[in-house]
Specification:
The protein has 14 helices and 10 strands. It is globular, with a radius of gyration of 18 Å.
């Protein structure tokens, strides 16, 4: 039985963590610099973020390894340190989890390589598999308990990541995709197509992350749960849409807005609930209170949330999001 199954035997849901990159940017990470480099040069900062999420109620934290593949790290001339950087990510997350007053599962964030597969690009399945295997070696040596493939748009890349991980270890794997283009991924994958393909791969959990905000995630969870009620589903929404205000990124999803999102996706069938870009420990704390039933959410917040759902759902309330500029989607994927 994997760690998620063990915890879900006694818990109705598991609260995940939130963003890493957007927090580090507020603490000095330079624009365009890889958050993963801080595993080596500022490990205390990474551990502090993990600890803040744990204190807010997170029961599963993700090691700082989202862009830890050789393709991503090569952009910063760090591709010779893939195993070292990923090993450090796992060790930092493990140290934070072991210091927690309650059981915290140590996950390993595995993001896309940022390259396109043949024939649209030059990436081959074997190259991707090899890169993900290399990343998985470092993370498994660092002590992670579950691999967390996230923010994927191409099913072929998800399968390459799974194959790479399983070629070097037998830890459980969860996978989430991003359905931010008219209810589909950028590569045209629908939630039900993703569910169908991923169910055949013996994963610990399946779902959605990142994207254009809560409305989009609600639609995905609803569709997946109705099709496969027994599947453990993951909901990890951005805190709304990022806006550049006075040179700084700002998100419209306040902690109270995200608390309402947490309640709604739990009702729709998600059992693993957290946040992606723009979500900080205060958002997780609000989600924890909402999921435990101790939070009081105002009618004003409910009205604002319903307005966001309508706006992001093309005015029909169905949660199907409008496509966002490719540059914005690329930014969100890199900065998770």
């Amino acid at each position: 039985m994997n760690p998620l199954q063990q915890l879900l035997q006694t818990e109705d849901h598991i609260l995940l963590d939130g963003a890493m990159g957007t927090i580090l940017m507020g603490r000095g990470l330079e624009q365009g610099a890889p958050p993963e480099s801080w595993n080596l040069i500022h490990p205390e900062q990474i551990q502090a973020v993990h600890q803040e999420y744990i204190e807010a109620g997170s029961r599963l934290i993700l090691a700082n390894a989202f862009g830890g593949s050789r393709q991503r790290l090569k952009l910063h001339k760090l591709d010779t340190q893939v195993v070292e950087i990923n090993r450090a990510a796992g060790k930092i997350a493990r140290a934070a989890a072991e210091a927690a007053p309650h059981k915290v599962i140590i996950g390993a964030s595995i993001g896309p390589t940022g390259e396109l597969f043949e024939p649209m690009g030059e990436l081959t399945f074997e190259d991707a598999k090899s890169a993900f295997a290399e990343q998985a070696i470092g993370l498994s040596e660092g002590g992670v308990e579950i691999f967390w493939i996230e923010t994927m748009s191409d099913l072929q890349e998800v399968k390459a990541a799974i194959a790479g991980i399983r070629s070097v270890c037998d830890l459980p794997i969860a996978a989430t995709m991003t359905f931010d283009t008219n209810g589909h991924t950028m590569m045209g994958v629908s939630p039900l197509k993703a569910l169908e393909e991923l169910l055949a791969l013996d994963l610990a959990a399946i779902g959605a992350n990142c994207g254009n905000g809560p409305a989009e995630i609600e639609a995905v969870i609803k569709a997946m749960h109705e099709k496969s009620p027994e599947t453990i589903l993951v909901a990890k929404s951005n805190a709304g849409i990022p806006q550049l205000i006075k040179g700084e990124l700002s998100y419209d999803g306040t902690p109270e807005i995200m608390a309402l999102y947490a309640k709604r996706v739990r009702k729709l069938g998600a059992r693993l609930i957290g946040g992606c870009c723009g979500n900080h420990p205060e958002h997780m704390r609000a989600m924890a209170d909402a999921l435990s039933g101790t939070a009081v959410i105002s009618t004003t917040t409910t009205a604002i949330y319903d307005g966001l759902v309508t706006t992001n759902g093309n005015g029909n309330g169905n949660g199907r999001s409008t496509p966002k500029p490719a540059r914005e989607r690329k930014f969100r994927r890199k900065r998770n």
